[in-house]
Structures are given as C-alpha cells and as structure tokens.
Amino acid sequence: MRLRATPRLDKGKGAAKKLRNKGKIPIVVYGPDFEAEVYSVDELELKNVLSEASETSPVILEIERDGETKDLEVFFKSVQHDKVSDKVMHVDFYKPTTGHKMRINVPIKTVGKAIGVEHGGILELIHMEIPVETLPSVLVDEIEVDVSNLDLGDSVHIGDISFPQGMTPLLHPDETVITVLVPRGLVAEEAAGAEVEVEEEEVEPEVISKGKKEEEE
C-alpha cells in the first residue's frame, strides 16, 4: 500500500486545523534512528489505506520534496479520531530500523473447529491481538492458532503458541488467549444427568436388599 505525503512547513494546532479544512490530515513519522518528521496526506487516500491496512501492514510513504519523491516504509503506530464525529484527526507512523526490534500488536486467527464447540461450547478469543517485540523482517500479518483439539473447558495459552524466530510475545506464558466456554445451560444438563444416575444407582441396592430380607423370612 502506498500513500502520498507532503512536508508540512507550519506546525501547531492552528496549522493542523487549516490542513483538515483543506481535506488534508497531519501525520508524524519517527523511529529509533529516524528523526521525527511531519507531513500531511490526503484524507480520502488515508481512509482507503486504513480500510485495508492493519498495524502489521507496511505502508510506503511517497515523500514529495523539491520535485523528487522518496519512499519510506512505515507502519501505523496510532490513529487519533475526533470523539464526536470519529473523523481521523492525526496519525503517527513508525519507521523501523534494520536489525532493531519494534513493538507491535499482531492479530490472532483461529484455524479449524473446536471439538468443544461441536459439544455445545462457545469458543472465546480473549486476546484478539498479541503485543510482541519483533524484528521487522519476521513480521507477519497474523498468528494462526489451530483450535481443532480444544474440548469443553480447554484453553490455549501464550506458551502454547509458536511465534516466528525473532518475535517475542510480551505477555506471560500462562496468559490465556483462547478458551472453550461451557454454557450454564450445558452445565445444568450435565449436573441433572449426574443426579439421575446417582438416584438410579441408589435405588437398585434397595430392591436387592429387600429381596434378600424376604428370602430370610
């Protein structure tokens, strides 16, 4: 995905407001070895990119300066919206450095149908994204987790997930990511079934005992 960006000469809230009135959105680009620079992008172009990109999607900024165009590979860091209209007000982009790890959230994608769901359970995704520290070269769009073998009450923890080499999750290994919930109704049915079995087991000895007593008399 590509996005055209124009250097901003004026800074401050007043200048940013004027840009938005012209259909432009102010942005900032920064990184560990990249001094922060400010630009503006077309609002409609930005909306189109936002509709397709995620935090893990690289975006090529086409910087227009002095008749020349320079490409910068960046990632969305934060997007500020107006509290009332939800209109995009400002965007921060992060420019990684080769060999330098970056912190980002990677989406989780479940694969397969859990056994527990077929038994009446509910698959719950507790963490839709996992915060990680990763090298840009091993960054992926999503982490796939096979849930096929999960039965009622089973869970997947951070320690159960395979992450690419060079990517480290920032959550504890025991942190639950996915679980198969047992609905209350299903628990009640199982409990009722267990009570019936217990009653049947208790009734049978009484009948046998009574028969023995009659034989003795």
Which fold name corresponds to the CATH topology of the largest domain? Ribosomal Protein L25, Chain P
- Tally of DSSP β-strands: 13
Shape: elongated
Largest sheet: 6 strands, mixed, barrel
Distance between the termini: 94 Å
Low-confidence stretches: 191-196, 208-215
Radius of gyration: 29 Å
The class by helix and strand makeup works out as alpha+beta
Order of helices and strands: EHEEHEEEEHEEEEEEH
- Give the neighbour order of strands across the main sheet: 1-3-2-6-5-4
CATH 4th-level superfamily of the largest domain: Ribosomal Protein L25, Chain P
Task: Present the secondary structure layout.
Elements: E1 2-7, H1 13-21, E2 24-31, E3 34-42, H2 43-52, E4 59-65, E5 68-81, E6 88-94, E7 102-111, H3 115-118, E8 122-125, E9 129-134, E10 143-146, E11 155-157, E12 167-169, E13 176-181, H4 184-216
Parallel strand pairs: 1-4, 2-6, 7-10
Antiparallel strand pairs: 1-3, 2-3, 4-5, 5-6, 7-9, 8-13, 9-12, 11-13
